[in-house]
Structures are given as structure tokens and as C-alpha cells.
Amino acid sequence: MSTPSQPPVAADLLDLLASWERELRIAKLSPATLRTYGRSVREFAAHLAALDDPPATVEDITREHVQDWIGGMVAAGRKGWTVNTRFANLRTFFYWLVDEGEMPANPMERMRQPKVEQEPVDVLTEDEVRAMLAACGGDFTGRRDEALIRAYADGGMRWSECANLKMSDVDMDQQVFWVLGKGGKTRAVPFGERTARALDRYLRARRRHPKAAGTDRLWVGRLGGLSAHGVRWALEERARKAGVENFHPHRLRHTAAHQLRKAGMNDQDMKRIFGWRSGKMLERYGESVADERAREAHRRLSFGDRL
Hints:
Helices cover 57% and strands 5% of the residues. The chain has 307 residues and is mainly α. It has 2 domains: 9-100, Tyrosine recombinase, N-terminal domain (DNA polymerase, domain 1); 126-291, Intergrase catalytic core (hpI Integrase, Chain A), CATH 1.10.443. A 3-stranded antiparallel β-sheet has the order 1-2-3. It has a two-stranded antiparallel sheet with strand order 4-5. β4 and β5 form a beta hairpin.
């Protein structure tokens, strides 16, 4: 319902968002994707609510309202990836409104994706990953966290995918994780020999852990199976001990993609392993690798170093 400080169009959008989210849950989208869609629509509704002359109804929303919102994000210095995500999410929402008869036409029809500068992919250096591994030690939590770091950095899974792995999802013979990804789709994520060795050492220690028998979750802690937030805390603690600043688990996924792209993995293999549907992420990591190679070339050929 609308309030004295909130125009009806904003309240209507939020009501329609709740209906859309029910549809998205049926499609088995991940909680993270649902949050991103919801955040985009809520931010646009807040933008309309702040206007001196907001549209009277949802049907009155125009392209100019969207352009003003996008322009405001760019002017505020929002990250390029965020601006493009907000744009795409809102356009998808409007198409759903048209399909449901809530809008006569999509005001974003034929609108082009905003041209914003993309930030470099936030990857860890090899030395930073090695430092995190060196910070693990040889006790139970050390074995677990080494296997965890290697699983992330080698397989490049999403944080929630790796955190929610079950024992039955690990195939040591084929050296793959069977991952439940976005949209409820299962994919095989391979891992290498050193990750297999770290997993083997952890699994042997896990069998002796007093809380292991009570859970089918792969990652076990003092109280039993680790939650996704428990896994994140464990990784952040290893990063802190290793002196890695501004760490978050997704940086390990970025790093895996960057390194595989740098090593020459082809587009189709990258999409299958990382669970990408479009080529946008491939372009982003291609630019990341090109930037790194340019820096390496400059270090080899630096004119300043010859002076």
C-alpha cells in the first residue's frame, strides 16, 4: 500500500515485484539472482518516488524515466557492471509486466545497453592464493580449508555452489564436482590432481570427525555441517592470516576464470564449466587477460628501464 511519502506508482511496482518474484521462484532461480532482480526494481521504484512529478500509474512509465534513472547511476559513479545489471533486470521485469497485461508496451523496447566503462576483473595473484594455502596448516581445519580454497580456485564454482556441496556431489574417480547451479541445472566441474590430493586428505580426516556422521554436507566444522556463511568465514579467516586484503569468495571464482582464459581455454568449455549462458562474461575475462598481457609486455620492454 502507498504512504503519504510514497506515490502510488512506486507502491504498485513493489506489489507487482512480489508477484514477479513468485514466478521467478517457480523457475528455480538462485536466491542471489532473486535478490539482484528485486534490488533493481526496488531502486527504480525509489527513483520514481523521489521525483517531483512521478508517473501517475505503471502504464505511464516512459523511456525518459528509465534514462533519467540510468543517467543518475552513471553520474553517481556506480560500477559499470552494476549499471548494466540494473538495466537488464528492469527490462526483463517490464517484459513480464507486458506479458501479464499490466503494461501496454515495454518502455525499454529498443533501448540500448548503457555504454559504461567496465572495471577490471577483481582477481587474486598467484602469490596471494599460495599465501592463503600456506596459512592453512596440517590440523583438521587446515586440511578442510586447503581443500576448500583449492576447490574454489581450481573449479571456479560460485560461492553458494561450493558451500552447499554434499558428499554425493564429489566424484573422486572422475575428479569432478556435480554442482547444482542457476536455474536448478546440474553441471560437472572438474578439478586437478593437487585439488584431488587435498580433497583426499580432507575426506580421510572428515571420516574421523565426531560431527561428520550427522551431516551429508561436504564441509564440516566444530558444530557439524558448515553453512554458506560458515564457509565464507573460514575463507575470510585464511585470507586475513595470509595478509590478503579486500577478500571475498567470488574473487576465487574470478581468479579461476582469469587463469583458465589466460591458459587458452576455449569459449564453449569456459561456458560449460562456469555455468554461463551468454558470452558477456567471456568478453570480460578476455579483456582481463589482455590487460595482464599488456602489463607483462611493458615490464619486459619498458623504455624507462633502458634509460
